[in-house]
Design goal:
By secondary structure, the protein is of the alpha+beta class. Helices cover 35% and strands 21% of the residues. The mean pLDDT is 78.
């Protein structure tokens, strides 16, 4: 086995003369050079790994709020008939009261307001008016497709629970 510190360039086992330290220096530099290259490659891999993790975090937008946009169509009420788009993803003052009401319903578990009256529900037989409404869209990231009327106590209660999303038609 050749002496790594004293062998010649050709790999022979003959020792270099003590007056020629360049062989030993070159060998050490070669070793250190390879160690440096390997260390730099490892460091570059580490930095790339960290950046792969951090860069998406730095450029990622804050988690988007669930989409909350509803289209409300009211008919049969006269002055309140028409279509309104309720967008609760922005800070529009127009929709603030309706959005706050929907947020309150969501906090208190009142999302059943969009559900139809169960077929076996015991409801009073009363007529609240000819008004009807359709609400479609997305609320809190969930699809909404609900119909409302004022023909029966349970239907009137559903309508009233959603005021001011649905208009006050009692006056």
């Amino acid at each position: 086995m050749p002496d790594l510190y004293g062998s010649g360039h050709d790999g022979s086992s003959s020792p270099r003369p003590a007056s020629d330290p360049s062989g030993r220096v070159l060998t050490m530099l070669r070793r250190r050079g390879w160690i440096t290259v390997v260390a730099l490659l490892a460091l570059a891999g580490l930095v790339a790994g960290i950046l792969t993790y951090l860069v998406p975090l730095a450029f990622a937008a804050t988690p988007a709020a669930p989409v909350s946009r509803l289209q409300v169509i009211v008919a049969g009420s006269g002055a309140h008939d028409g279509t309104v788009t309720l967008d609760c993803t922005d800070d529009a003052d127009d929709d603030r009261a309706a959005c706050e009401r929907l947020d309150e319903l969501a906090r208190t578990g009142g999302t059943a307001a969009f559900e139809p009256v169960p077929a076996d529900a015991m409801c009073t037989m009363q007529f609240g008016g000819p008004e009807t409404a359709e609400i479609t869209g997305t609320w809190g990231g969930r699809p909404v497709d609900a119909s409302f009327a004022r023909s029966g106590g349970c239907e009137i209660a559903r309508w009233e629970a959603l005021r001011p999303v649905l208009p006050d038609v009692t006056s």
